[in-house]
Amino acid sequence: MRIELRWHGRGGQGAVTAAELLAIAAIEEGLFAQAFPEFGTERRGAPVVAYNRVADHPVYEREPVLNPDYVIVLDPSLPPSIYMSGLKREGGLIVNTKKSPRELADELKAQGFEPPAIVATVDATEIALRNLRVPIVNTAMLGAFVRVSGVVSIETVEKVVADRFSDRPHLVQPNVKAVREAYESVNVEKLLVARA
């Protein structure tokens, strides 16, 4: 087993932290994992990309993930030309948006992009605002990803998130709740993928 992920967001949304938390959760479950960011201009609001590789064997590459199995989009204002690049047809796309998976898939098609086999949407911004009082959506998107992929258990992710914020106790429960709420509310559509 080996999966590769790419996280797309903007500075301040927590894409890099989400990738790190996923890697820690995978390692806690006995898997091998890595997480690393790619920064352009380091400023709040600038596009940010982070990567994960998770496998049941050691992983040594450190190159950017060009053909991900999953793409997670934290900021719906990012253009598809940024996040659809290289996404495997049999892969999954998870986007923070109020739209349904079908609406998102139809929009992508209208813009000339072929949606992958799995399209999932979750209103992570609303979840973050309700629980954290700020639009930092990383933990919510992590919960949505776990539900769609099943790569690690939601319980392990909740534990890792709680550990990460243990030095700021007021953030533990809000982030754990955001993880669980997104996990339970993500909308998933499995599209038929034509085989060549």
From TrEMBL:
Keywords: Oxidoreductase, Pyruvate. The keyword Lipoprotein does not apply. It holds the Pfam family POR. It is an enzyme of class 1 (oxidoreductase). Its EC number is 1.2.7.1. Gene3D superfamilies: Pyruvate-ferredoxin oxidoreductase, PFOR, domain III (3.40.920.10). Residues 11-184 form the Pyruvate/ketoisovalerate oxidoreductase catalytic domain. It catalyses: 2 oxidized [2Fe-2S]-[ferredoxin] + pyruvate + CoA = 2 reduced [2Fe-2S]-[ferredoxin] + acetyl-CoA + CO2 + H(+). GO terms for molecular function: pyruvate synthase activity. This is pyruvate synthase. It comes from Pyrolobus fumarii (strain DSM 11204 / 1A). The lineage of its organism: Archaea, Thermoproteota, Thermoprotei, Desulfurococcales, Pyrodictiaceae.
